[in-house]
Amino acid sequence: MANSNYLSISDILVTNEKVPCKFMFDLPKMGFLDPSATESDLKAGTNIEIPLWLAESLYTRRPPLVSVDLPKIYKETYREILNADACTVDMHKLGQHFYELGCYIAKHDIKGEVSSTLLDTFRQRFKMILSASVSTDSINSVQPLSTSERSRTEAAVVTERALSSWLKIGDCPLTTANMVENHRKRKRAEMELL
């Protein structure tokens, strides 16, 4: 796990995502963590999903109180689907904070499989998002986006519209920067001296 940004709302939402954990020791008076528990104590070997921030806290103790497993969206089955064609996946259903949570998980993924899947997924979906941001009609046709993809797409649409309106105005011609112009004069003067 990683240190979260205490003041970031998006980071709070990401660290509140649940991850599967197995408790290594009996924990008295902690049975409320398991909704199916009938006792007030949490027994060793209990498998439940808890928020990432709690899992991090319990995992970093010495000795660790839990072992943390990969969330299902980062396991091999889903990695194969994403590596095959990430553009067909509904990222909103798969995980609204897919990339952000994946970054937390990837820090402790020894094999690096999660980080490579995040990178491949982003590369595949970036092309789709970029083409969708140019045409507002195609935004609605893309698979539902994760929270970060949606915010990046909205920012790209705003930037594209600003560029288009600036190009349509046309009363502000592009000129050569002074630095470039002075560089050309200096090069020309040096060439004349030769």
Name the descriptors:
194 residues; mainly alpha; 3-stranded antiparallel sheet; 3 strands
What does the model show?
The protein is mainly α and 194 residues long. It contains nine helices and three strands, in the order αββαβααααααα. The protein has helices at 9-15, 52-59, 76-85, 91-94, 98-106, 113-134, 136-139, 147-169, 178-193, and strands at residues 18-23, 47-51, 66-68. α5 runs antiparallel to α6 and α6 runs parallel beside α8 (147-169). The mean pLDDT is 82.
Mean pLDDT: 82
Give the terminus-to-terminus CA distance.
Answer: 64 Å
Helix content: 40-55%
The percentage of residues in β strands lies in 5-15%
Give the structural class: mainly alpha
Order of helices and strands: HEEHEHHHHHHH
Order of strands in the sheet with the most strands? Answer: 2-1-3
Radius of gyration: 25 Å
Number of helices: 9
Secondary structure elements and pairings:
Blueprint: H1 9-15, E1 18-23, E2 47-51, H2 52-59, E3 66-68, H3 76-85, H4 91-94, H5 98-106, H6 113-134, H7 136-139, H8 147-169, H9 178-193
Antiparallel strand pairs: 1-2, 1-3
Helix pairs in contact: 3-6, 5-6, 6-8
